[in-house]
């Protein structure tokens, strides 16, 4: 007999708490080697997909991915990240002062992936 408020097939709070979590590997740093770019973007997409609760908007996704850039890739991004950080609003949005190329990169994940390829 079902208890009031229970749903057939629903797990108890104890069962839910003990549910194992799937962990995805953290992406490798990207140093600018074009032969590694597709794998870097794939790793980022997978990581963000499995950890969506940490990425509440696309700008957050781009900022996180930018933090994984090293060497020539970071050097290329330097002008854009500097512009973004100097002109962003208090809630990390591009403003009218932000250059168009910077907006293209930081306003969407697609913009970032297009710019880096």
Which structural category do the helix and sheet elements fall into?
A: mainly alpha
How many helices does DSSP assign? Answer: 6
The termini sit apart by 59 Å
Low-confidence segments, given as residue ranges, are: none
Q: Nearest-angstrom radius of gyration?
A: 20 Å
Please give the domain count: 1
Shape by Cα distribution: globular
Helix content: 40-55%
Main pleated-sheet profile: none
Q: Overall pLDDT, averaged?
A: 89
Which H/E pattern describes the elements? HHHHHH
Strand content: under 5%
Number of strands: 0
Please provide a written account of the structure.
The structure is a single chain. With 117 residues, this protein is mainly α. The chain contains six helices and no strands. The chain is globular and about 55 Å long. Helix 4 crosses helix 5 and helix 5 packs across helix 6. The chain has one domain.
Summarize the structure.
This protein is mainly α and 117 residues long. The chain is 51% helix and 0% strand.
Name a few traits of the molecule:
mainly alpha; globular; 117 residues; 6 helices
Outline the secondary-structure elements.
Blueprint: H1 13-17, H2 37-50, H3 58-66, H4 71-87, H5 100-106, H6 109-116
Helix pairs in contact: 4-5, 5-6
């Amino acid at each position: 007999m079902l208890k009031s408020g229970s749903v057939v097939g629903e797990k108890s709070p104890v069962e839910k708490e003990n549910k194992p979590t799937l962990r995805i590997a953290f992406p490798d740093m990207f140093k600018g080697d074009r032969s590694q770019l597709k794998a870097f973007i794939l790793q980022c997409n997978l990581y963000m997909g499995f950890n969506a609760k940490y990425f509440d908007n696309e700008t957050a996704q781009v900022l996180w991915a930018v933090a994984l850039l090293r060497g020539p890739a970071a050097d290329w991004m330097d002008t854009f990240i500097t512009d973004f950080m100097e002109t962003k609003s208090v809630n990390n949005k591009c403003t009218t002062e932000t250059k168009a190329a910077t907006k293209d990169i930081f306003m969407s994940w697609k913009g970032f992936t297009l710019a880096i390829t």
